[in-house]
Specification:
The chain has 113 residues and is α+β, with helices and mostly antiparallel strands. It has 3 helices and 5 strands. 19% of the residues are buried.
Length: 113
């Protein structure tokens, strides 16, 4: 089950659109084996490229300029509501730190396995 809020689902197509051309280039066009070092490096570059895009997009979408402040009439307490673009309950821009870790784990697993 995939859980997202707002535009958080954009993480999936961004990662796919960054990785697919690089994988196609190395495996299909340049004819490197799928488990080769160039194919693995293309995988890492795709993840890191998508992480950069997701960082800036997430920061823009979850910016504080769109927050609204509400005041509870009874208690006088203020609370802020703003945009939340989440993927698996994690803010979109934080996936920019998770994706490189996933890339390194996949890279190591492919080299070892």
């Amino acid at each position: 089950m995939i859980v997202w809020r707002g535009w958080g689902i954009l993480i999936l197509p961004i990662v796919a659109l960054c990785m697919a051309p690089l994988q196609f280039l190395t495996v299909e066009w340049l004819k490197f084996p799928e488990q080769s070092l160039p194919a693995n490096l293309a995988l890492i570059v795709g993840f890191f490229l998508s992480a950069i895009i997701i960082w800036f997009l997430g920061k823009r979408l979850n910016s504080k300029t769109a927050e609204r402040v509400f005041v509870d009439k009874e208690s006088g307490q203020e609370f802020k509501l703003g945009p939340q673009h989440l993927f698996f309950y994690i803010r979109m821009e934080y996936w920019a730190f998770i994706l490189p870790v996933i890339a390194v784990i996949i890279f190591i697993a492919r080299l070892v396995g």
